[in-house]
Amino acid sequence: MEKVRRNERMSVLMKLMADSPNTVHSLGEFGALFGSAKSTMSEDVELLRKTVEAFELGQVDTVTGAAGGVIYRPKISREKALKTIQELCGMLSGTERLLPGGYLYYADILSTPGIVNRMGEILATAYFRVEPDFVLTMETKGIPVAFATANALGVPLVIARHSSKVYEGSAVNINYVSGSGKMETMSLSRRAVWGKRRALIVDDFLRGGGTARGMVELMKEFNVMIMGMSFVMSTAIPRKKRVTGARSLMTLTVSMTEGEPPTALVEPADWLLSGDILKAPMPIGGWLT
After folding, report:
1. Phi and psi of 240, rounded to 5°?
2. Rounded Cα–Cα distance for residues 70 and 259 (Å)
3. Cα separation, 48 vs 283, whole angstroms
């Protein structure tokens, strides 16, 4: 094999690790790929770690032990996270996107890969330390952000449905009260999750918290620990939700002035405005039984 130069090796290393974040790669794996010694690969990784840190592109860590190696996490600083969310708030505020019932149209935002991936990185950064085993969402609008979060965490995505599908085998079904007060059904294949696992709930919108509460109850049937709940947006009213400990990236307030059309005011969530987003909250529910 022709000798590979260091700059070429580092480019390939970054590509491989960025394509599989939060996954451990051994130095032997890299050495075999380039025909290089482990000591050489160790030097390359150290240079890459310093570069990634200097340009705030994430974090490269070394994992010790027999199953150790190198792991890349696409972490984002609070300043960059806040800037991204503030730009989104500017796009979403005003009168044009407001829908009847106090809802906001932002389906175009949730279908833009660059924006969705950045939101996923922000949410993943906040929950790296609690090490969820999978991300849970409810079909369908929350899937893009949940997938981006799961990808950044390097874990599977599990999707709860309104009805069971024959191609998913036997399922667990529960009834829950939605945010609008209607009785709904939530279903999840028995093969999708097994007990004593850790879940991170990610969805698009939190109003009263009915659907979120339904997902918590569904995980109770699987004896799964809820490590956190995150949403793209939540409403300021009602202030008290049916779940506790939920985080959202943005908060929606609808301003009503006599003689003028309703106006949407979208603001960054409090936890982004102050504090360290790397400091994950405590698990919400413990082992639910």
Report:
1. -90, 120
2. 61
3. 33
pLDDT at residue 207 in the model: 93
Please tell me the pTM assigned to this model: 0.92
pLDDT of res. 289? 35
When computed from its CA atoms, the radius of gyration of the chain, rounded to whole angstroms, is 21
21 and 152 in contact (C-beta within 8 Å)?
Answer: yes
* CA–CA dist 136, 160 (Å, integer): 7
3-state helix, strand, coil in the chain (%, to 5): 35, 25, 35
Q: What is the pLDDT of residue 153?
A: 96
Joined together, the tokens standing for residue 39 give 């000591």
Residue whose pair of structure tokens reads 């290089």 in the numeric block: 36
Give the phi and the psi of residue 174 in degrees, each rounded to 5: -130, 160
- Residue 228: half-sphere exposure toward Cβ, Cα within 13 Å: 24
CATH number assigned to the domain covering 6-73: 1.10.10.10
Cβ atoms of 227 and 132 within 8 Å: the answer is yes
Q: What is the mean pLDDT of each run of 10 residues along the chain (289 residues)?
A: 86 94 93 92 94 94 82 92 96 93 91 96 93 95 97 96 89 89 92 91 95 95 94 93 93 87 94 73 49
Domain with CATH 3.40.50.2020 in the chain: 78-273
Structure tokens at 11: 């480019």
**Residue whose structure tokens are 């094999």:** 1
Give Cβ neighbours of residue 130 (< 8 Å, ≥ 6 apart). Answer: 198, 200, 227, 228, 280, 283
Residues of the chain with CATH 1.10.10.10: 6-73
Number of helices and strands in the chain (H, E) = 8, 12
Token reading at 181: 């007060």
d(CA 71, CA 68): 9
- CATH for 78-273? 3.40.50.2020
